[in-house]
Write a structure and sequence with these properties.
The protein contains 20 helices and 28 strands. By secondary structure, it is α+β, with helices and mostly antiparallel strands. Helix 7 runs antiparallel to helix 8.
Length: about 750
């Protein structure tokens, strides 16, 4: 039977107890006086075995990841000085619970417990009590038996008294050791007071230098140089890790002229080794060269060891954040005076590490926020522009420098019905995660609104409403508003354009954004004449749509102000320079993008910059067929015949039956429920597009017809037979459209 006896209340988790800094410090304190405590531990273990009539007894201290045997008796019990894993026997359970552990018969215990100890000792019964130092469980005193035992309360009480006795002796020895250390420290202080004062002055100067660093890399390098100067060494390394993954550590190195030949050495350490002990336990380590090489965790640099600078003693201090997390460590080697590292060296380095940690943590947090925002922004922008018959496009996005932070620029190319395409560019004022997230919400809102295919000014009006609508306590659904606040609410701009390749026209509306540059086929570059409305969020001011003809061979350039405006160049001058560059023909849109970026942004920009170059393509008139339809059901058969002939002309007989059926349903619905005049348009693009228009503003919707209904199945049939379908509103009336995939013989001739 296995049970925990004694003690009430909430028990902390084993990991919380075992990893507690105070407890680990107490364990280190006991381990630090092994030469004084070894005999006491061994004597107590032997006495426990005799007192309880067992052949085996053990005293071990529980570290963060292992237990240290400090006394034992019995042939199968580990010797004093040996180490075992925390899962060997049950000592770590006793330490974690802080209470005695009684096991009468392991065969009644859950399977697999302490398998290693059972195999080593043949243990069948176990009784262990915690060893407390200042109320903290540092280890366990236990007795083991090879046969089942029914431990009685008296035996447990006797073992507890024995544990208290040995820890009382250890406490006295710790007090004596501390007294000796204090006496020695007091004696040494007078001799080094002058040097200490100078070090403190140097420390203050170093703190000023570190706090003034502009970046994480610069901060690490400054800390490294100041550490070497403060303590007086030939070698100094500062490492910042990511969750103790040393292969990804950021390292800064400072070597004196003595080691100038090694300044190019940059090989990573092999495995984790001794570095992890400093960082994981968040405590300094100071060793001589012999102690360093003899340490079981020292692994060196493997095949790179011959190229590593020779080590001459070692002092390492962890870099710890304000909440106790480890950032990395500072390491020093080879003192300039040839001596060993001292407690004073450690103390001054600890102070430097404390001062440096705040600066490093701040610099790392800023870079981390920048990287998060940059990743968020990158994921929200188009990874690649979709292929469209209506346009060829190329783009560039240049994020601002890390010190400026990520901005909220974006662009998009959205396929619309009728072979049309929407071209979008926008900007959110400000920088950081908020700006990137706001950009993502705006881009999503534009895509959602584009799905219902409003006119450009209608889309911006809806977007403006979403931005300016104030949040209220009555709002239960936040998806219908963007809830922008502060600068973003008044500083979001957007330009939305729709290009129709059939008409060869572009409709644009602008909300406070720089207007596009248009380059005509003859090479003249100018600005489109587009009315510029207020930025998004102002509210109450209508937007206007401008329609312009875009001849074949023209070029449109959409951009954000970060591309043309800088500290040394105003917006007008930058726009004029952009016009000059675009007027020079390039080999391709990609090449032209590079030319623009190279000329306008020779250095990393202070603000995000976006560029979208678009070359519109008009659709061949031979691939568009339009018919006016009379409001007579007899028209359906005649139109079907015309559609069949046109599909045959295009070489699309294979989809003729389905297309005729879809056209019949759409025309029949228009005749029954729409208002004349009616029109059918057939477009041969990457898909076959059927559009039926009428002057009624009522939009159709799918419904499920019952078995007795004579109608109501038309749109359901269209939805099943086509890739997609929808409705778009016009200034007068509506258009119902659907798209069919082309036969698997390839794209239509001349498609781009």
């Amino acid at each position: 039977m296995t049970e925990f006896r004694g003690g009430d209340g909430v028990t902390p988790s084993p990991a919380t107890v075992l990893h507690g800094p105070s407890r680990l410090a107490a364990v280190d304190a006991v381990r630090a006086i092994d030469d004084r405590t070894g005999a006491a531990f061994t004597r107590s273990a032997e006495l426990a075995a005799r007192l309880l009539g067992t052949g085996m007894a053990l005293i071990s201290l529980a570290g963060i990841d292992r237990q240290f045997v400090r006394g034992g008796t019995g042939a199968a019990v580990p010797r004093s000085g040996e180490q075992r894993g925390l899962d060997w026997a049950f000592c770590s359970e006793v330490v974690a619970s802080g209470r005695p552990l009684v096991i009468d018969d392991l065969r009644d215990a859950p399977g697999g417990r302490a398998d290693g100890a059972v195999a080593d000792t043949g243990m069948r019964a176990y009784l262990g009590v915690p060893l407390l130092l200042g109320g903290l469980p540092v280890g366990a005193l236990c007795v083991l038996d090879t046969g089942p035992r029914s431990w009685d309360p008296g035996q447990r009480h006797a073992l507890e008294q024995l544990g208290e006795s040995v820890m009382s002796e250890i406490g006295l020895r710790l007090d004596a050791a501390e007294s000796d250390r204090l006496h020695a420290r007091t004696a040494a202080t007078a001799a080094v007071e002058r040097q200490r004062s100078q070090q403190l002055r140097d420390l203050a100067r170093a703190s000023l230098r570190i706090n003034a660093t502009p970046s994480l890399d610069h901060a690490l390098q400054t800390v490294t140089e100041e550490a070497r100067r403060l303590v007086g060494t030939h070698q100094s390394i500062t490492s910042m890790t990511r969750d103790l993954r040393w292969g990804q550590a950021i390292n800064a190195v400072s070597l004196s002229d003595k080691y100038a030949a090694y300044r190019s050495f940059d090989a990573p350490p092999v495995g984790e080794g001794i570095y992890v002990l400093v960082c994981r336990e968040n405590r300094p380590m100071r060793m001589t060269q012999d102690e360093l090489e003899a340490h079981p965790a020292w692994r060196g640099f493997g095949e790179y060891a011959s190229r590593h600078p020779p080590m001459r003693g070692w002092l390492a201090v962890p870099l710890i954040t304000s909440d106790g997390r480890n950032l990395g460590l500072i390491q020093l080697s080879d003192k300039e005076d040839g001596g060993e590292f001292t407690a004073d060296d450690e103390a001054i380095l600890v102070q430097l590490a404390q001062l440096a940690s705040a600066s490093i943590e701040k610099a790392a947090a800023l870079e981390s926020q920048y990287e998060i925002a940059r990743t968020l922004q990158s994921s929200l922008l188009p990874q690649r522009l979709p292929e469209q018959s209506a346009v060829s496009a190329a783009s560039r996005y240049l994020p601002a420098t890390p010190r400026a932070g990520v901005g909220g620029d974006w662009f998009d190319v959205i396929a619309l019905s009728g072979a049309r395409v929407a071209l979008v560019v926008g900007d959110v004022v400000g920088h950081g995660i908020h700006a990137a997230a706001t950009m993502g919400r705006l881009r999503t809102a534009v895509r959602t609104l584009a799905d219902v295919d409003p006119t450009p000014e209608e889309l911006l009006t809806r977007l403006d409403d979403l931005v300016s609508r104030p949040p209220s306590e009555s709002d239960t659904d936040t998806d219908d508003r963007l809830g922008l606040e502060g600068e973003a609410a008044l500083g979001a701009t957007c330009l939305y354009a729709v290009y129709d390749p059939v008409a060869g026209r572009c409709a644009l509306a602008c909300a406070g954004h720089p207007v596009p540059v248009v380059v005509s086929p003859d090479g003249h570059a100018g600005l489109l004449d587009v009315p510029v409305g207020p930025p998004l969020g102002v509210g109450g001011v209508p937007f206007e749509t401008a329609e312009v003809d875009v001849p074949e061979g023209s070029l449109l350039a959409f951009y954000t102000d970060g591309l043309v405006e800088s500290r040394s160049r105003d917006l007008d001058a930058g726009t004029e320079e952009l016009r000059r560059i675009l007027a020079v023909p390039g080999e391709s849109l990609e090449t032209l993008c590079d030319d623009v970026v190279r000329a306008l942004l020779p250095e990393p920009p202070a603000d995000d910059a976006a560029l979208l170059l678009v070359r519109p393509h008009s659709l061949d008139r031979a691939r568009v067929a339009t018919w006016d339809i009379g409001a007579d059901p007899a028209e359906v058969a005649r139109v079907r015949a015309r559609v069949a002939r046109r599909l045959a002309t295009w070489g699309l007989d294979e989809i003729g039956f389905v297309t005729e059926l879809v056209v019949s349903e759409l025309i029949t619905n228009a005749i029954r429920y729409g208002l004349p005049p009616l029109q059918l348009r057939l477009i041969h693009d990457r898909t076959v597009i059927c559009e039926v228009s009428d002057t009624s503003g009522t939009a159709p919707h799918l419904r499920r017809a019952t078995a007795l209904d004579e109608g109501g199945r038309g749109l359901m049939l269209v939805a099943r037979l086509t890739q997609r379908w929808g409705t778009r509103q016009a200034r007068e009336g509506k258009t119902i459209w659907c798209e069919q995939a082309l036969p698997p013989t390839g794209p239509p001739p001349g498609s781009r």
